[in-house]
Amino acid sequence: MIIVESPGYCTTLQDKGRFGFRHLGVPLAGPMDRQAFELANSLLPHEMDSCVFECTLIGPRFRLEKKVRFVVTGAPISVLLNGVELTMNKVYTAPDNSNLELRKVLKGMRSYLRFEAELISPVVLESKSFYSPITPQKCIAKGDIFPYLSTSVGIEKSNAQLRVNDGYLLATKLTVSPGLDWGLLTNEQQDLLLSETHMVEAQNRMGYRLSSKVKVNAPALLSQLVIPGMVQLTPGGKLLVATADCQVTGGYLQVLQMETTSLNILVQKREGDVLTFRNIHP
Amino acid sequence: MSKDYKILQISPSVYSLHFMEGLKPSIELSILELRKLFPAGTEITNTFNRINLIFPNEYQMDDVVSKVSEIDFNMKGAEGQKRTWKIPICFDSIFPNDLVGIYDGNPQKINAYRAVFLATTFRLEWYGFLPGFGYLSGLPKELHLDRKRNPSHLTRKGTVGVGGAQVGVYPQDSPGGWQNLGNCPLPWINFLEEPYVFITVGDSVRFYEVDLTTHKKIALSVKRGNYQPNYEHA
């Protein structure tokens, strides 16, 4: 089993997310950075479980009782297995009674730790993805125990590393296309939104708040569907980019929709980072 | 015949059918028809005037257009048995009551508001905002209340709120911008077994007043798992 000795800064368990329940108001959840999640799963596939630990800025320290393979993807983070420093995106085997420690994220925001195992954690609405109060916990806590099963030792992959493309971690241009309410902006507002620099003011798993100089006198709108990647503009002139845990509906102006690959770039940004938009449908 | 809806593309895998003002399709029947046309695994949700199609992967606009064109949104049909749910609300002063501020503490006005509220039959339109937060329509115009200028930091689970023309019950503690009327001890969603919600889209809701003792009693039997919500056939 995995014993949590130190939880890090809001480490969560994430599988693909909760598809099929948005008609009940239930957020999708799942990994913020889907590219890092997919990479971890392709390096260590397991037919029973796609779970990863999503680590934010400061990773957890685990005690691992039984031998298990693992990999760390996403934002570069210092990883120590029994005191020995490891590299990212490479599969390692932890022997019985190991200490696995993920320290500080060096660049970016979110790192992903995947074990080649079926992790035991409550499945609620067909998913293990943490989202309180649907799952009991918001983040892992010190003393938590995650038993794991059926480590698959089936296919021993060649040692050749997968070609890892992590250039996106440094990218600052986000690709967007017009949202449903784009036409409610004036040409000047549209031009400004696409040419100005946006700073990350705040972020969590529900969304990113970005600065903008665009001010709108928005009409009162009916609440409509919100999906991850949707960029909403508030009357106060803030941009809200919906991410994994976003509410399923919202009433702000839906000005842009971000491409999924760009959303992976965004969720690796920290408060204070700056970025720009690129419109693919001018 | 002119089309009375538009198909909007939100992303390569997400579309909305936007119904023009004036068209009042049966959302429930339309969703049943849409389910037959699109692959299993397609999420279908709705708001007041839109039905949303969320595909697991990219989906072509042309395919959406041609499939949706097979549906007659003016259809009438057997909608199935509708229910009117009897939902408890407690006005005890231990629960925040924004009517006090709105009506300067005038008890006649507060009681008059509550009387009309309790006499109203609401309709569940859709779930959104939070898991199990149902949007109810049907609030008489004189009972509409503007949202708070500054949302409150914490609105308690069970709070029955009014936001403009809409009514809803907060399924969990949350920041909230709606005006608080009272508290409902009955959770509208559970995450452990089907049906996850007992009120389905299109069902009716009537609130009835309970005192604090009854509120506590209901909350306790909910906790023990032996509370059955009451309904009548509409």
Supply database-style keywords.
A: 282 residues, Cyclophilin, 7-stranded mixed β-barrel, 3 helices, 22 strands, 34% strand, elongated, B: 234 residues, alpha+beta, 2 domains, 5-stranded mixed sheet, 5 helices, 14 strands
What features would you describe in this structure?
- The complex is a heterodimer of chains A (282) and B (234).
- Chain A has 2 domains: 2-164, no CATH class; 171-279, Cyclophilin-like (Cyclophilin, Beta Barrel).
- Helix content of chain A is 9%, strand content 34%.
- Chain A is built from 3 helices and 22 strands.
- In chain A, the strands form 5 sheets. A 7-stranded mixed β-barrel of chain A has the order 14-21-18-19-16-15-22. Chain A has a 6-stranded antiparallel β-sheet with strand order 7-6-9-4-1-12, with no helix packed on it.
- In chain A, strand 15 (198-203) and strand 16 (207-210) form a beta hairpin.
- The relative contact order of chain A is 0.18.
- Chain B is built from 5 helices and 14 strands.
- In chain B, the strands form 4 sheets. In chain B, strands 7-6-13-5-14 form a 5-stranded mixed β-sheet. Chain B has a 4-stranded antiparallel β-sheet with strand order 1-2-4-3, covered by helices on one side.
- The model of chain B has no long low-confidence stretch (mean pLDDT 93).
- Chain A binds chain B through residues 19-27, 124-125, 133-134, 179-180, 222-225, 227, 229-230, 247-249, 254, 257, and chain B through 8, 10-11, 14, 16, 41, 43-50, 52, 54, 56, 126-135, 171-172, 189, 191-192, 196-197, 201.
Q: What structural class results from the helix and strand content of chain A?
A: mainly beta
List low-pLDDT spans of chain A.
none
Cross-sheet strand order for the largest sheet of chain A? 14-21-18-19-16-15-22
Largest sheet of chain A: 7 strands, mixed, barrel
Instruction: Count up the domains of chain A.
Output: 2
Helix content of chain A: under 10%
**Rg estimate of chain B, integer Å:** 20 Å
Number of DSSP E strands of chain B: 14
Order of helices and strands of chain B: EEHEEHEHHEEEEEEEEHE
List the secondary-structure elements of chain A in sequence, H or E: EEHEEEEEEEEEEEEHEEEEEEEHE
